[in-house]
Amino acid sequence: MDPRTEMKDFLQSRRARISPADSGLDGRRRRRVPGLRREEVAYLADVSVDYYARIERGDVVGVSEVVLRAVARALRLDETETTHLLALARAIQPATAPKAPVKPRETVRPGVQAILDSLVNAPAWVSNQRMDFLAGNALGRALYSDMLTDPDGRGNNARYVFLAEGSRTFFRDWDDDADDVVAILRHYAALRPDDGTLAQLIEELSARSEPFRERWAAHRVRLHRATRKRVHHHVVGDLDLAYERLHIPGDEGLSLFVHPVQPDPVTTERLASLAVRT
Q: Which of 90, 125, 168, 243 is the most buried (most CB within 10 A)?
């Protein structure tokens, strides 16, 4: 990805989604395009129109974080979107030294695996920023067995969602889950612009999946911390799962995902049945 192009497309897409009325501006003037004009964003961010136009072109060398955060507030970006904007700006800055290629972690420490194995009643796994399933406890591996064994998924959540037919049966809210996968991948791509394997994954999905291409063009960014997942497991049936994402200190780029013990008695019973089979 070219970070300048990414910044231009991202800011234009965020600008287009905001109405003048949402920002307290006069929306009665006739408009050829939806959303705010550049001069309106500049006014809200308290910068000149030329300066904002420069930022929107991706020409942000020397632009301070204070100004970028002012633009984020003008565009009503949330925390993840603001982090994404700042990450793109960092990627555009000239390098002070040659950058070594970045590779995602592909293994977990024994201590992390021990933590996973200690969670006997809750599915748990560790993923990197490519969405590879690196390690899990027995219940986590059983829950996501289709993704781990599918020849198109190959143990990668993004590949499984967009390239494996079975994902549309497994994820009961496939469209929403697909939206989230792309939004998270785009956020990770901005954080790791030198990760060649992540770029290759995005190129592969763009080439092979029209639903992925359509979602990638929307420039949404998101980072889940807590949500719910509704899945259909081929052995135990429908499951309604809570979902928590935890950062692993000292292991950059790795996250621990857990489906905590459920208040739903049906899901609890079905997870227990799945655990017996592992």
A: 125
